[in-house]
Amino acid sequence: MSAWWKSFFDEDYLRLMSQAHSEEVNTGQASDVWSMLDLAPGCRLLDAPCGWGRLSRPLAAMGATVVGVDQSETLLEAAEAQRGELPESRLRYLKHDLREPLPESGFDVACNIFTSLGYGTEEDDAAILRNLRGAVRPGGRVVVETNHRDMLCAYLARGASSCRRLPDGTLFTDEPEFDAISGIVRLHWYWSGPGWSGEKHAEWRCYTPTQLVAQLERAGLRLAGAYQGLSKTPYKAEGPQAGGRLALVGVRDD
Ligand SMILES: C[S@@+](CC[C@H](N)C(=O)[O-])C[C@H]1O[C@@H](n2cnc3c(N)ncnc32)[C@H](O)[C@@H]1O
Question: How far apart are the C-alpha atoms of 204 and 201, rounded to whole Å?
């Protein structure tokens, strides 16, 4: 796969996704992370990748000391611009390729949220998870929250495709194609709205829950829990969404 992700997360992505995730949604998800992990004020949290800081910000506002890491300069600039009153001592951002070891360690928790694996090779993902493990303290946790193959297949089996109107009037369509042999999803986004229109294409590796657990373990993390999205409800592959989104929690045991 090409390194599409180096240019995908640009101004267009930001305009689309920041409308798809209102501040209310972001604050709600940050609260879900907080209660799922029983976080306490003062905890050190690595948000990696952090995108435009949509979760880093509310998590820092709730009392965590947050470092947000991402490779996209555009998204990091937006994150900085939206930091509000939060001082650097509570929230910092860092441009970094997560396939490389992080320059800081000792975090209580590292979060990899909103389908942020599978963009390159399996070895790239193994490196990212190893680096997140290396960034948390012994006993620290790594959380991976993601879409997965069982959910995708359930969605495609219903003939579903997603089309929604964003707050600025843009009509946004997502028409994924799935190659079940390679396990690769080809993502096709199209949008049209006031003053703009465009398309974006990408491909990502859609793991099964079993493969994701194997990736965590390969990175030296012990599986401590599997949940339905960012919740405390244990994951069960049931219902029309095959359990919905999956959050895995791995612990660094040494
Ligand atoms: C789907 S977004 C999720 C971001 C954030 N967790 C959220 O919930 O909004 C995926 C992010 O991964 C970042 N990313 C992809 N590959 C990366 C890498 N190798 N190193 C650092 N960031 C990466 C992208 O720039 C993008 O911001």
Answer: 10
CA dist 169 and 183 (Å) reads: 34
CB of 9 closer than 6 A to ligand 1? yes
Q: Which of 9, 25, 32, 56 to mutate to test the pocket of ligand 1 (most atoms within 8 A of CB)?
A: 9
- The pTM for the full model equals 0.96
- Cβ distance 91 to 26 under 8 Å? no
Contacting residues for 229 by C-beta, under 8 A, at least 6 apart: 32, 145, 244, 245, 246, 247
Going by alpha carbons, the residue nearest to atom 4 of ligand 1 is 51
- Per-residue b or e along 39-63, where b marks 16 or more CB atoms closer than 10 Å to that residue's CB: beeebbbbbbbbbbbbbbbbbbbbe
- Ligand 1, residue 21: give the atom nearest the CA: 9
pLDDT band, residue 162 (cuts 50/70/90): confident
Distances (CA, A) of 3 to 11, 49, 98: 18, 16, 14
Q: Cα 229 vs. chain centroid, distance in angstroms?
A: 11
pLDDT over 90 at 160, yes or no: no
